[in-house]
C-alpha cells in the first residue's frame, strides 16, 4: 500500500501551503450580502452583518418575481429569514466581480408563514456554469433553516446566480445571498489523492467548484460566523465520532502560532485550533486504538477532505508521531507536526486529501499511534475536519445535468406550448369557415379539400423559433 512517509512530510506541507499568510483582518474586495425580498435598505443579522434589500436593486435582473414578508416572524430566527423572494420563472441575480478567482457563495432558505404552498417550491440553482442543486424541495418545518455553502471559481467579471423552477407548476425562492471573494490561500491547487492502491499528488483543484458538506470543530464547541473571519459555522464532532472510549479532549488557552506559509486564520480560526481530541499514553504502553469519524456522503463524486492539526497537547517538541487514515487507507505515516511547523508547538497545519465517494455512502477518517509513537506522550491528535464535494464532469453538484441543459429544458417546455396554441387557432379558423359557409347558403355540391393531419413544416419552424427565444 502506498504511503506518505514523514521524510516527505515537510515537502508535502509546504507544497500544499505555499501561499503567504494574509492579514488577520481580512477584507474581501467583493462582498455582497443581499436580503432577498426585503424592502428595507439594510438588515442587520445576528452576527452584526449588514444585508442590503433587493427591492428596486440592480442585482435582480428579472421581472415577475414576488416579494414576501413573514407577518409573524419567529424571534429566534435571524431577520434575513423574515423575507423571501419567490420566482415563478427563471430569474437572475448578477454580481460584478472585482477580482476573478475563488468566491464564497452562500444561499439561505427558510419557509415563511404565508398563503404560499411551499411544498411546490422545487427548483434548480445555477452559478455561472455550475449547477449548485437540482429540484430542491423545501418540504421542511417552518422554523428550519438551510444554508447551502460553496466555493466557486469565477474567471469573468460577473457572477450570475440563476433560479429555475423545475416545472411551470413549481416555483423557487431564496431568503438571502452572500457572494464574498475568498482569500488566496483558502483552497490550494494541489492535494494528495488517496485510494487503496495509490497515494499521489494531484494538481488543478482550482479549476473545480466545491460544496461544503461538513465543517467540524473536533473536541470543541460550535463556532458561529461571528467568531470566524469568513463567517463560517463549525459544528461539534460528537455526532460523527465512532467511539469515545480511550479518548480525551484538550482545550488550549495560549496563543496559536500562525506562520507565514502555513495555515492562516481564514483557513482555520483560533477556536478550531485551540481545541482537539487526543489519544494519550497513560503508562509505558501505547494504546492500540484509533480515533475514527464517519460521515455520510453521496457516491459518484470526489471529495476534498481537509484535516486540521495543531499540537496544543504535547509538553515538548518531537514527542508526537501518528498515522492518518482516509477511508481506511494509510494517507500519512509517522506524521510529526513539529517537523512541518518549523519546530513550533501550537502552530496550525492542515492536509488536503482527495478521495472517491464509493457505493458505501460513508467517508471514514481516522488518526492513531504509529510505530514511532512514544509512551507517556500524546499519540494522536485532530483539531478540525472539512469535507467538500467536488463538482462532477458536467459542472454539477447534484446529478448529471449541466447548466445549459437546465436552461434549455425550461425553454423547451415553454416552446411546447406553441403547438397546442397553433392547433387551437387552426381549429377555430376551420370552425369559423364552416359557420360562415352555412350562413351564406353554401350547397353540398361545393368540393371540400381534406383537412391537414399535421402542422405544416413552415409552422413547425416558426414554433422552433419561438421556443428558442432567450428568457
TrEMBL record:
Source domain of life: Eukaryota
Provide the alphabetized UniProt keywords.
Answer: ATP-binding, Glycoprotein, Kinase, Membrane, Nucleotide-binding, Serine/threonine-protein kinase, Signal, Transferase, Transmembrane, Transmembrane helix
Topology term for the membrane? Single-pass type I membrane protein
Q: Name one GO molecular function term.
A: protein serine/threonine kinase activity
Q: Name one GO cellular component term.
A: membrane
Localization terms from the record: Membrane
Q: Where is the Malectin-like domain?
A: 34-389
In the record, which residues are listed under signal peptide? 1-24
Membrane-spanning residues where? 417-435
Q: What is this protein called?
A: Malectin-like domain-containing protein
Q: Whose protein is this, by species? A: Anisodus acutangulus
Amino acid at each position: 500500500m502506498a504511503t506518505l512517509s514523514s521524510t516527505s512530510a515537510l515537502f508535502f506541507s509546504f507544497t500544499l501551503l505555499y501561499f503567504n499568510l494574509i492579514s488577520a483582518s481580512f477584507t474581501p474586495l467583493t462582498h455582497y450580502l443581499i436580503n432577498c425580498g426585503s424592502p428595507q435598505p439594510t438588515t442587520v443579522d445576528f452576527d452584526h452583518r449588514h444585508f442590503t434589500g433587493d427591492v428596486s436593486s440592480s442585482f435582480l435582473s428579472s421581472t415577475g418575481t414576488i416579494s414576501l414578508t413573514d407577518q409573524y416572524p419567529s424571534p429566534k430566527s435571524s431577520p434575513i429569514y423574515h423575507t423571501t423572494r419567490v420566482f415563478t420563472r427563471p430569474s437572475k441575480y448578477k454580481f460584478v466581480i472585482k477580482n476573478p478567482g475563488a468566491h464564497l457563495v452562500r444561499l439561505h432558505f427558510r419557509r415563511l408563514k404565508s398563503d404560499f404552498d411551499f411544498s411546490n417550491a422545487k427548483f434548480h440553482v445555477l452559478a455561472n456554469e455550475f449547477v449548485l442543486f437540482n429540484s430542491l424541495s423545501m418540504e421542511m418545518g417552518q422554523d428550519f433553516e438551510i444554508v447551502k455553502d460553496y466555493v466557486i471559481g469565477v474567471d469573468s467579471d460577473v457572477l450570475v446566480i440563476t433560479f429555475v423552477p423545475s416545472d411551470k407548476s413549481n416555483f423557487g425562492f431564496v431568503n438571502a445571498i452572500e457572494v464574498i471573494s475568498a482569500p488566496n490561500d483558502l483552497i490550494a491547487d494541489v492535494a494528495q489523492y488517496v485510494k487503496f492502491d495509490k497515494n499521489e499528488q494531484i494538481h488543478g483543484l482550482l479549476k473545480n467548484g466545491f460544496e461544503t458538506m461538513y465543517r467540524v470543530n473536533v473536541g470543541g464547541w460550535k463556532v458561529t460566523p461571528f467568531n470566524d473571519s469568513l463567517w463560517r459555522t463549525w459544528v461539534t464532532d460528537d455526532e460523527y465520532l465512532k467511539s469515545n472510549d480511550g479518548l480525551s479532549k484538550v482545550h488550549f488557552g495560549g496563543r496559536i502560532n500562525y506562520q507565514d506559509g502555513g495555515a492562516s486564520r481564514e483557513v482555520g480560526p483560533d477556536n478550531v485550533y485551540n481545541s482537539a481530541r487526543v489519544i494519550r499514553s497513560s503508562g509505558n504502553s501505547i494504546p492500540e486504538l484509533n480515533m475514527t469519524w464517519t460521515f455520510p456522503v453521496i457516491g459518484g463524486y470526489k471529495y476534498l477532505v481537509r484535516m486540521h492539526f495543531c499540537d496544543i497537547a504535547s509538553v515538548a517538541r518531537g514527542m508526537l508521531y501518528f498515522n492518518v487514515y482516509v477511508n481506511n487507507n494509510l494517507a500519512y505515516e509517522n506524521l510529526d507536526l513539529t517537523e512541518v511547523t518549523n519546530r513550533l508547538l501550537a502552530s496550525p497545519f492542515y492536509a488536503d486529501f482527495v478521495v472517491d465517494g464509493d457505493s458505501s455512502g460513508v467517508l471514514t477518517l481516522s488518526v492513531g499511534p504509529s510505530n514511532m509513537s512514544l509512551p507517556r506522550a500524546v499519540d494522536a491528535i485532530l483539531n478540525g475536519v472539512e469535507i467538500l464535494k467536488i463538482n462532477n464532469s458536467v459542472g454539477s453538484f447534484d446529478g448529471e445535468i449541466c447548466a445549459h441543459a437546465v436552461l434549455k429544458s425550461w425553454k423547451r417546455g415553454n416552446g411546447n406550448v406553441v403547438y397546442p396554441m397553433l392547433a387551437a387557432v387552426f381549429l377555430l379558423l376551420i370552425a369559423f369557415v364552416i359557420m360562415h359557409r352555412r350562413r351564406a347558403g353554401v350547397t353540398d355540391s361545393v368540393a371540400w379539400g381534406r383537412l391537414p393531419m399535421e402542422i405544416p413544416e413552415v409552422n413547425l419552424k416558426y414554433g422552433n423559433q419561438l421556443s428558442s427565444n432567450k428568457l
